Fold these 2 entries.
Entry 1:
Amino acid sequence: MSEVRLRGVTAGYGREAVLDHVDLTVREGTTTAVLGGSGSGKTTLLRVISGFLRPGSGTVEVGGRTVAGPGVWVPPERRGVAYVRQEGALFPHLSVAGNIAFGLPWPRRRHRDRVLELLELVGLTADLADRRPDQLSGGQQQRVALARALAPRPELVLLDEPFSSLDAGLRVATREATARALRASGATALLVTHDQGEALSFADEVAILTLGRFRQVDRPTVVYREPVDAEVAEFLGDAVLLAGTAADGLVDCRLGTLPVGGPVPSGEVQVMVRPEQITLTETGTGQLDATVRAVTYFGHDAVVELDLANDAAHHPLRARVIGLHPPTPGDRVGVSVVGSVRAFPRGRTAAGTDLPVAEAS
Ligand SMILES: Nc1ncnc2c1ncn2[C@@H]1O[C@H](COP(=O)(O)OP(=O)(O)OP(=O)(O)O)[C@@H](O)[C@H]1O
């Protein structure tokens, strides 16, 4: 049993609380990605769980055992928690095998079989075992760091932005190898990142941390499609926010009358549409007509800025279309919205902060 549970955890440095009565559960054998902006407290959270920082209040449980709480303090080395940092921090004077064996308990340090098994687990070949870290690519070094962390069969693996120093291609390959290795080892894991795509693709659950609290913790598809408020929606991807009026499961906005998914407030609302929900067709065949103002081409897809024909204020609107045949500026197109949209009450976010008043495309 290696579930992690935080209840009412407050922690910080000096007087200022970085984490403010935080609750979080990571189920046994699953991975949760903690997504937050710079300085939101992601590393502080990992320090509290690993035992490098004492919480001011609340309890931390790892594997059903309280490791921090009123009158309880288990030191880091007795928590069964492994920590992989941004830079793997391998020992430069030891070989790959030596680095991995360092993570094994003393009597097993000479067991080459276990080292080779761990290399295979992280997707590296046995011929790398005798190289020094400076003879490896950045992605290979991170995989060795992961193998070293998994060597003592930890109950919990904490990953602190372990892919952020890698370039795009290596990053994806290393991320996939890490996800596979974690699944195969059965470890519970917590990944800290500020990369939305990484959080959504890597983890079983995504936890959004802002202002010292978790705003939403749920499966990737749920936090993306059903964000709790407009701020979370914008934090977790591209979002088109529009003013609207909601009633009876429908909302009126400058994209027309659209069905609302999830909770349906009534009255003045902020409408959230993902740009990929806005599809372009031949002019006259969509729900609305528009003129293409600008196109940003990314290869696999393109972002198209549109001027809606019925919009006297000329607020541009963003659509995301597949990159096969993107339109060109000046084209006239039909515009439709696929699926339901979200509607949030105007005025306050779920966290109690004010919503932006202006429309954003
Ligand atoms: N040792 C420290 N002493 C004092 N303040 C600290 C210390 N470490 C972090 N902080 C402050 O605590 C806040 C949260 O820091 P933390 O490192 O947890 O954020 P983060 O979300 O991991 O950020 P990043 O994504 O930039 O690494 C920041 O305001 C930071 O300046």
Note: The pocket of adenosine-5'-triphosphate is lined by residues 13, 18, 36, 38-44, 194 (CB under 6 Å).
Entry 2:
Amino acid sequence: MMRSKLMNLVPRAVATTSRQMSTATKLTTVQVDDKTGIATLTMNRPPVNGLNLELLRDIHQSIEEIEGNKSRGLILTSSNPTIFSAGLDIFEMYKPDKERIRAFWTALQDVWLALYGSSVPTAAAINGHSPAGGCLLATSCEYRVMLPKYTIGLNETKLGIVAPKWFMSTFESVLPRRLAERALNQGRMFTTEEALAVGLVDEVANSKEEAIAKCAQFIGTFAKVNPLARALTKQQLRAEELKQLEDERVQDLEKFIFFVNQPAVQKGLGIYLESLKKKATK
Ligand SMILES: CCCCCCCCCC/C=C\CC(=O)SCCNC(=O)CCNC(=O)[C@H](O)C(C)(C)COP(=O)(O)OP(=O)(O)OC[C@H]1O[C@@H](n2cnc3c(N)ncnc32)[C@H](O)[C@@H]1OP(=O)(O)O
């Protein structure tokens, strides 16, 4: 998979305007800045960018599109002014449909393999809260810029669920092992300021525009680096985690299906959904 992506890494001419590359789907948009050649992938699923089957499929398709059109980099962000992504749409896991839940988890695996394994430089402009699956997306990127007063982290244990190994390795590729282990066990959500202090995010910006500009600046640091050498270096550094999921995706799916169907897990998810609804009516 990575080999064919690498074939796309040839220099290209740049123009001066920005163009909408894809509106084929309604849940993501891809806008390429023709001056920098950088693509911005925006998640757009109100109210909270909950990662359901359709959004995951659209994100995957958009990443493939960006890989295919020789963009110089990918910036992931959200159209919601206060939420990057609320993580997995809990309705996909609560009282699930047998076929759909398989497609859902497979789509999540596809997104992670494409984003974590992307041959182009990736950055996340985290313009809002980013729990669980939202944190997975952000930490799959190479660089993170976050707006103040939001939260980010893998809070799975607080929901009574267990993050799969590949969520944990992604988290661990950003945070020191000891800190990652403690945060995962605690289900800790970090404020922007805390996330910056521990290195979970690289920079703080005061607006989405500034966050995108800082992400573009990061991607710009590769301008004078040979793209093939850069991509092969990234590929080698990330190969172990990618290979592990590629080799074990069927078992990973079966584990998820078994786990999510446990009565205790279903009960926990139901209670959590109720608590989210109650919060909304307060
Ligand atoms: C041994 C190995 C076995 C492996 C087994 C694997 C097991 C599964 C692993 C799963 C991995 C990942 C898990 C996840 O990603 S789960 C999702 C976790 N997300 C959260 O906990 C976030 C919950 N949401 C919030 O904290 C807040 O909503 C917010 C994002 C901070 C936004 O706050 P807000 O005040 O702006 O909005 P709010 O009123 O709360 O929400 C608006 C409506 O959206 C609904 N909603 C929010 N989040 C979700 C969600 N994740 N899924 C579905 N629906 C969500 C909320 O209920 C409101 O709805 P309504 O308007 O009241 O109808």
Note: Residues 227-260 form the longest helix (34 residues).
